[in-house]
Protein 1
Amino acid sequence: MSDNEYTPTSKAGKWFNDRLPLLTLANHLTDYPTPKNLNYWWTFGGILTFCLITQIVTGLTLAMHYIAHADMAFESVEHIMRDVNYGWLIRYIHANGASMFFLAVYIHIFRSLFYGSYKAPREIIWIIGIIIYLLMMAAAFMGYVLPWGQMSFWGATVITNLFSAIPLVGEGIVTWLWGGYSVDNPTLTRFFTLHYLIPFLILGLVVLHIWALHVPGNNNPVGIDVKKPSKDTVPFHPYIVIKDTFALLMFMIVFAFFVFYTPNILGHADNYIEADPLVTPAHIVPEWYLLPFYAILRSVPDKLLGVIAMLSAILILAALPWLDTSKIRSAVFRPLYKQFYWILVADVLILGYVGAMPAEGLYLLVARVATAYYFLHFLVILPVLGLKEKTLPIPLSITEPILGGTANLATARNKESSIK
Amino acid sequence: MSEKKTKRRDFLFTATYAVGAVGVGATVWPMIDQMNPDASVKALASTEVDVSSLTPGKTITVLWRGKPVFIRRRTEDEIADARSVKLDDLKDPEKDEDRAKNPEWLVMLGVCTHLGCVPLNDKGDYNGWFCPCHGSHYDTSGRIRKGPAPTNMEVPKYEFVNANTIKIG
């Protein structure tokens, strides 16, 4: 990194920085050259950091009032809602915050899919991101168990039972996960512990995610390499900071709408009934952000294969940098990929919809077709498309498509070279 | 490094790794095993149930080891149904005679073998049980007939202590 030569102006700053170069790091983050054509789809990294911090802060405060015991958990959540000062607000922020976190992460992931951000040299950023996503799902699932309502209990039962599909050792693993012969108090206490731990693991991975990002720098909507720093880049502060802040404010309006106006719309009413090991709710549905994978699980009529299909659907993303054989990053210059991209978006939305519906009749058929297409996209379409597709010519620089499109191209070119 | 001959130092390295691995294993195992069912959970291993109030065609659900157990007093029709099925038609072939020693009484874990939900009584295509979670159908012997569940509902160890009392576990 070129900003290694940074020296603080004040004497005290220099003294400190010689011993711990935190100011060098701060300077790197401030000056970090960023492509100047980043659009609002690039603001979700900052939004996600906000979501993580929000979950950690509200989670810490909730943990001061919550009691992780099968006999008391449900009541302690009601106690938070009714008695604790602003308990309702903190809990609603935390519960809806999980949904907002996933909303943002899905936009972030699909941004990467559209602009090819997972391609060389950014594979490690992408894979760390997938690990974060997996940890998010684990944290969200265990967090949903903590209120010890009907959906908590039966969701926990169904998800932990997925492991029983493993031949030979499956049953043993499930008993080990439960700490008993069913989901019960030992399960609740360990889920609470892990739910508390995982956000901090995610925080560590976020640092690695950003570190890995700062090596090659950001991808951009045009998807070409930019020299940095150059006329194609702007410093992170104030340009990106202000743009991220504006986007974050817009996001917080949506967040606040859910928290204050429809705090329970994304949850399930059955979770306000205390857990009962003798009665399964008529219709078990996971939270909305897990529905596409749930649909894949149910679309396979065999237990083990269903579990394998569901896990593969997530893990296949980690192999994406090698499955997509195209050298062109941005879908802007890949006319065919662009269409398949939107079909994939539709496919995932359809999977999410049928995942919420009963697994029978037409829904099941649609789920099966959509599942098949999901894998077809990654395993067949992407590898073949990269080799066959006729891509559009990519510009030489970020500036070219903007200035190149004007009537007075020559003037633009001249101006450009005079800036150099 | 180019020398291929095993040296005294290689032996020491290997021995150190081996002892180290055993040490790490011995330290990690208690951390893993603490998650297995503890003594108090295992102590709740058996439950006695009074079944005198059950008339034919009725089912009661009791809790054993935190899991529901169905105790059904079957009707003549149900027994005949369950016993007339050809083993070839079953996904997990098991004779009804082996599942219900006393044909009138069916005792089994009320846990769907797919993903652990509690199936509903008197529902489904085979007049036995139906699991609402992912649509598994069980017959009047609790055997899987249709849907994603891989095996029949499990019959736990149980015995009649006297004519009216069943001891599960």
Protein 2
Amino acid sequence: MRTISFDGVIVGGGGAGMRAALQLAQSGYKTAVISKVFPTRSHTVSAQGGITCAIASADPQDDWRWHMYDTVKGSDYIGDQDAIEYMCSVGPEAIFELEHMGLPFSRTEEGRIYQRPFGGQSKNYGEGGQAARTCAAADRTGHALLHTLYQNNVKNQTVFFNEWFATDLVKNSDGAVVGVIAICIETGETVYVKSKATVFATGGAGRIYASTTNAHINTGDGMGMALRAGVPAQDMEMWQFHPTGIYGAGTLVTEGCRGEGGYLVNADGERFMERYAPNAKDLAGRDVVARSMILEILEGRGCGPEGDHVKLKLDHLGEEVLESRLPGICELSRTFAHVDPVKEPIPVVPTCHYMMGGIPTNIHGQALTVDAQGSDEIIPGLYACGEVACVSVHGANRLGGNSLLDLVVFGRASGLFIEDALKQGIELRDATTSDIEEANQRLISLNEGSAGENVAALRKELQGVMQNYFGVFRNGEFMQEGVKKLADLKERIANVHLEDKSNAFNTARIECLELQNLFETAEATAIVAEARKESRGAHAREDFTERNDDEWLCHSLYYREGQKVDKRGVNFTPRTVDTFQPKIRTY
Amino acid sequence: MLQVSIYRFNPETDATPQMQDYSIDTGGKDLMVLDVLELIKAEHDSTVTYRRSCREGVCGSDGLNINGKNGLACITPLSETVRKNKLVIRPLPGLPVVRDLVVDMSLFYAQYEKIEPYLQNDTPAPAIERLQSPEDRAKLDGLYECILCACCSTSCPSFWWNPDRFVGPAGLLQAYRFLADSRDQATDERLAKLDDPFSVFRCHGIQNCVNVCPKGLNPTRAIGHIRTMLLNRAA
């Protein structure tokens, strides 16, 4: 097997990966991005409503501390306060950098960046009413951001391995990560990509569910690779169900619709969020809105012949506002719901959207595990940022607009830290031939297998189990059944049959490898979801309906070996502000 | 049963490409063309090869030639394209085929990179954003939304003949996106690099690009603006 060597290798060409790559490319270190799709096809492109940050455009008095308060509250108090402090305080600098790079933000009359109201955003620590803090480029903010980052990587001559797929981490005899095995999809060649710093920016895994806003490519590749390499996963029970996925199609309708004045109605035409969240109404936290929608449906007030969805009303905003502020939504709604939002409400239903959990990291992107004494331990050579990472700034529930901020701020932070570490010199023992062979074992087994089940059928079964047993509302008995069903799938997915053994652009092979990553992500989710015996943020249990701070004001950790579940402390010690103490969370 | 005919070519086993036919039960639903491909790959033939990602028309992966017209498979409903129960899917024309419906887009991307698709402004950046009026920002609408799907450039006869020298509609749309940006200061350098007989002037106003753009953008109009700027510059 050929070896290619770099100072830094970034796996994933979405927003986080390209922001990290840009930082490293500017530093002059030999850097490469491995992306399974051409970078602008990454899922960041689908982000719509905006990037939340206190740049004080809409409100000159706005303060990053208010944003921090909202984010801590939104996380249901298991977001790490040092990380949230870092994100919210560094955010404005990171946003202005993007603007200087050319990001075509929408503008105010003063020529500043346009900001819109989003869910969970308040002024003055929840006392001053709704804040408009989400910076937007119409409703195509992710597209604008991703293309701007790609363009600036082109400018800085970043090396891209486009349509290459990383299969597994390579570790040396000290347990340090020293690169990845990767396949060139076009030719089928497998190489060892050696690196002093390996950054996972592989994104989410929404495809573990049957109904998701996520792209086909969101298959948890980083989670799979990390778990197989013995890296723990944190807070995997925390999955965000976005209130407004288009009914039937699953495609996203931005929260910005409600930010601009849209609202949800049930079959009676009632604006039901007034009952569930009297103050914030339709702009309560996403977990709160999603649950309220499901309750409306369960109580018989759903829309349509099956009574299985609600509607998002926008027509009262007028054609001009819709076409200028929400043009992409008008397009998506006409294509996928066959509804013109200028005239009729859009049928919507809560849909799997975002993985709050991921690889535990510190604010520099360094991946962490926990030692026998319960102290954090850095995993040498491995970094993570963006959705695959759990810094954790989102805790049990992410606020809208915070994912784009997360990926820009922590992609940048990872790049800055690695640049510094490379300057000081990184010495890692070389991987031996057997270390590399071990990492390549999964691919070899797949290539040599001659029996087993079809990838599409197994994937469908897996997605069905997750959808049915680990959805918006959860129940212990039911989840135990789901865990059993996953146990049944485990060997079958490990032995998935690859019929097509050809080399050139073999997407069937990639789909098999992706399915195994989906399984690792799903299994981690299921086991910790069953273990966390409380309701917090997005994790809502019918058998444990209350938040239990005595036992569960903590992160969950999951280790693949022995399916071990552990707890890890939440950071309550920001550097420059007082701790935000846990309170009852209402909107 | 929908009759689907797909362009097949595997460089490892096939000397020449051929069309392969499938009879597909759509369950009477008005599926998207991508759904049909996914159905075929899942249930009929796992070797059928194509690109896809977002499945909602924003990532630009699945530009294909569908019943003779370039478009995105994920947002083209059968009802819009199928006539006489027949769906013919070919790769985007004019680019080398890697396998089946996957084309080598290197030439397309090279033209994009050639126009230096990034903001150029050497003045020291302010502590906040650079200001831009809503009117100036509006000039970027219809330009920045390009998803690089290559439907336009691969439907353009001028690009077919000179893919190495004619920038093509997608690249030129982005060239104009930066020329039109009030924050960009490289107008003169940008125009100088486009000022030759091929880069811009090979556009003959055929407008296939406008006809196929899945995002409803108008590269021909942008090219017209660049032409005017070039002519004014020469005058």
Protein 3
Amino acid sequence: MDGVGFTVKPGETLGLVGESGSGKSTVARTMLGLIPPSSGRVFFQGQEVLTANGRMKKEFCGKMQIIFQHPESALNPRMKIYESLLEPMLIHRQNSSREEMKIKSRELLQQIGLSEEHLTRYPHELSGGQIQRVVLARVLSLSPQFLVADEPTSMLDASVQAQVLRILKRIQLENGIGLLFISHDIEVVSCMSDRIAVMYKGQIVESAPAEELCQNPLHPYSRLLVEAFSSLEKSSVKQVWVEDEKIDTASRCHYYSHCPHAGPACRQRPVLRETGAEHYTACWLL
Amino acid sequence: MSVFKNKLTLIGMIIILLLLCAAIFAPVLTPHNPNTQCLSQALKGPCSDYPCGTDEFGRCIFSRIIYGARVSLAIGIAVTAVSAAIGVVLGMAAGYYGRAVDEIIMRIVDIFLAFPGLILALVVAGLLGPGIGNVMLALALVGWMGYARVVRGTVLAEKEKEYIETARSLGANDLYIMFRHLLPNVIAPVIIMASVGIGYAILAAAGLSFLGLGAQPPTAVWGSMLSDGKTYLQTAPHLTIFPGLAILVTVLAFNFLGDGLRDLLDPRLKDKAWNRG
Amino acid sequence: MALLSIRNLTTIFNCEEGQLKACSNVSLDINPGQTLGIIGETGCGKSVLGMSVLRLLPANAVINGQIMYKNQDLLTLPDKEMCKVRGSEIGFLPQSPSTSLNPVLSIGEQLTEGLQLHRGMIKEKARIIALDILRSLGLKDSARTSAEYPHQLSGGMKQRVLAAISISGQPSLLIADEPTKGLDAVNRIQVVDLLRQLSRKTRASLLLITHDLKVAAALCDEIAVMYSGEIVEKGPAEQVLNNPLHPYTQGLVASLPERGLYPIPGHSPGLLDDSPGCRFYSRCPIGNEKCKCQPIINREVDGVHVRCLYIDQSGGAQQRIYGRGFQSEAG
């Protein structure tokens, strides 16, 4: 990950797309202080997150939440669902009495469309979609203002994915949560997001409003991603992908070896610059 | 339930329960006082009055074995509990914090493992002087490394899982994560190891008392009974056979239990394997 | 004449909880050179179907019915004969490229193994053929690749190697189990392209098991939709995907992002559940009491077989059945 910067406004969704290994998850984990960055800063409501400690840190932890990719390891396998649901409140000592927490957990379950019988089950007795919904409910219990969803549905079937995404979107809009939605599926991202940032090998190569990016992708890599879905049905893919990671030299454009248009200018790493209304692209050739 | 499907586990459990009862109700169950000497009855074979015969001082062997169960079980359980506790705490710290902490703890483990266990215990017990308490301490000190290694390995795998990361992102502190999240997930192999470990500790304690380092006479201990009986191995073999059998059966029972627990303790094993399609 | 024809295949697992019916009364045909896609959600029994054909199921599985391959019933074949069929007649492309290769054998060794075994070649000849196959699958430096070990290859290359292994026995039928699961967009195109290459080069039939409707649309001639162990709809790919008749297929299509992310409510019944009626009843937006108790028979509409009492041929029914648009509900 190298020189990544972006902002998410309250109630806005920023989609982050990229292939596996492009550093999307690293971004997510770094923002929440789960991985220390080599350099750089993260601001939440004007305050710095990564250097905070003690009570400030805990407060940030309550307001910034994350959902991960794998439903099978998202919950402690030895804790019943209600224990997992109540955990954030216990850690943050929000509701003091046991009764209040019980009521709250029932409310949360209702919001995500699960019934009370699920409360006493173990995670392995629930399906992937149900678990991701429990995770959503858990996140909600602290009323966060910022949420990172790291490929929340990539392990789920299409119909279940639709279910979870709808709940996520509804919850986000109802509570005015700023959302960073990370996925490799540009179609899903375009359904969920207001803005989309495309990431390639740890660098943001393009960022634009969702519709603009899907209709008018400028960076060659974004173009490939957008076309990837329609080109499935054509007889063959036009792009040749060479597996030559080893020649990748430090200073040139990350996309150099795969780019069909690469020229001499690309030996120097491009930076994001404005290429349209609210449209930023890191490419020399525009 | 699958516990009863496995006959050996069931047998193991029954034997252990019987032993516990014997230890608790020893005064009621025994026909004679274990320490009363009756030289006229010395070295008698098993008969209706003495079910397992008498030793060289005319003490009832059956009664001594029953009373010996108290000491043996106490040693087994206490030693295992202490070594498991040491192992779990150190193993968890090593696995969770990693880096320097891991390095230091695992090197200590290596140092302890470099000595043959029983010899090390012998040295420790020798230094501390004879006595049940010292034997227990010695055995606990040489028995914790296995637990630490197993716990460390499981923690290493488990701490990468997303629920741990979620807990960290919620602002939970390290102690909370270790004891609320990691401990329940690493405890299964520890319990399995412990149930076998109890048997081993009993055996080791018997060995140490055989060498004269355990409980002091006249306290009835299986190991020292064996040791005392060896002089009469040819003329009165029942002096060694019965305490030997007691040790054998007890150790086996704990081993059976450990094997059964292995299958039972994982809730995920009960999953329908073909749910995934 | 069908290459593989499955008749009334029922696969049951005897478990502690009872009998788990992973496939019930499945009948399918694959013609030579054709690609048949089995689509369905996780746990619907589609992988079990593939494994039933290969007879690679755990011991507690009971397979009933008929699997006719080139006029012999695979289910009655002795084990020894079946071993010959696997690999030389029917190739298998496993799901995860990262774990399906033996890490301690070089690519060349793993590839020639099959050639020596199934085609009785001597080592030297097998090596030449192996290099040929690798080259034909787009691994240009095939000599270097065959000397390498799995950990030295990227995911895409491993998938190619696995494909090479699966076709090394010159099978007439290839079974691919979820070849695109968990892959990102770009890798997915590569795999689709690879499969397309395979079926063009070998002219083998392909049984493609997937939950990805788009991959199925790109590759398949025919599609069978599986739900909770049953085939609920089968027919020409275009027809099934563009004008689905069964409410479940309609729901699947409607849940795609570009069709508006309409979820199917509820979740599928366990495979243990053995009620007589329609398995989709509990989630079906148009079902009624009749569907619940009466066994549903297959009906044929314009070459499409559908297991449903109420076939809606008007098209565009999905919009009516599955709720409002994504953004509208969200707003």
Protein 4
Amino acid sequence: MATGEPLIVLDRVNKWFGPLHVLHDVSLSVDKGEVVVVIGPSGSGKSTLCRAINRLEPINDGTIVFDGQPLPAEGKALAKLRSEVGMVFQSFNLFAHKTILENVALGPIKVRKEKPAAARERGLALLDRVGIANQADKYPAQLSGGQQQRAAIARALAMQPKAMLFDEPTSALDPEMVGEVLDVMTSLASEGMTMVVVTHEMGFARHAANRVIFMADGQLVEDAPPTEFFANPRSERARDFLSKILTH
Amino acid sequence: MSVLIDKFDVFAGGFWLTLQICVLAAIGALILGAVMAVLRISPVPPLRAVGTAYVTVFRNMPLTVVMFFAAFGLPALGSNADFLRIPVLDSLFTRLGTDLPYFRFALLALVLYTAAFVCEALRSGVNAVPPGQAEAARSLGLTFGQNLRHVVLPQSWKASVVPLGSVIIAMIKNSALIGFFGVVGDLSQTADQLTSAEGYAFIPVAVGISIGYLIMTVPLGALLDRLEKRQAVAR
């Protein structure tokens, strides 16, 4: 799927939370159509990396370029860039006071200035695609976690983004609901969506990723195709991590 | 207790004047407080500083001092607060338009003082909305204003209603001060009028005055309780 055209380019990115160096000279390039899965122990900076790409976390040093344009400072230009990067959160973050369909249509109506009727129609089609069209008029709290996360994916897709960021999308779900969310993500990946996925789902990394990034202590330790990474991790740190999660 | 019946018109007049200044002050304080709250949560540091400075000054100064500044400071600066002679409003609330400026001075002081508390009540409501809601809105590309209007504020009302109600109820009671700053004929000043000038016994008059305030505050509290229940958002 990868086209060789870089869409997201991070160059020696550094980020501190006070004295804590959460991102340490991270450089990474993601091509259009590529699916990159980021794994690593907790506290390794994976989520921060993901959130830095649409500047939910501002970085202290280095550059991030999206689609040829460096990330702008807070303001209209940044809002426009964010509208082109879909984001899916661990805790879904659906707007609690709006129905599922209103959640999905809000961005297109307010940001893209689409006609409400057209936005809702497209929203319904997206909800149908993620398998929850029958929940359109319910409120987020009335849905299961898996349904909420699928709605959140539909909400992000409604903006017709150039790339999608997933920040541990299945970590807050009951085990039986993980599959339904991963199915949606897998189909997105196979359709050529550019994706950066922070996850602990090794199965997804194996079958859907073009590349696996392994992070530890704020550093990008390994960057390899999944078959290579899982069969032959080069670093001690990655071997140790894999031995811990794959033995159970 | 015959004073309550004999002088009913005086009580009613006092009630009506207090109600007028409270309605006007509540509207003014809600608007100014909302503006200050938006400044205080704005992403632009100088705007945040303005909001914070406002709250620091007016929340920490006694209302009496604010009233002094309004009633004596403004005339010293040559202002009769004529900007409060708002067309249409001044025909509904006739005291706004009179040549004696004390009603306007008192109104201004009440608004300035109460707005600081309104600001903090609204801000506490905004802080009660989980940060993920605003993050999701930002990541969709909504601007700061759209984020507030469509995502954060609609969810903040629930947490704001109770503290906001307390602020407005406190303001109604604080309005009892205006009689000491030249406003003639409000509910509290009525007590002074009836007891010292007309010689009525204090306790029956005080009971009448209390009833007047309770008529304003108790239904307001009940209304807010109902609003709070209706605003409940399931999570």
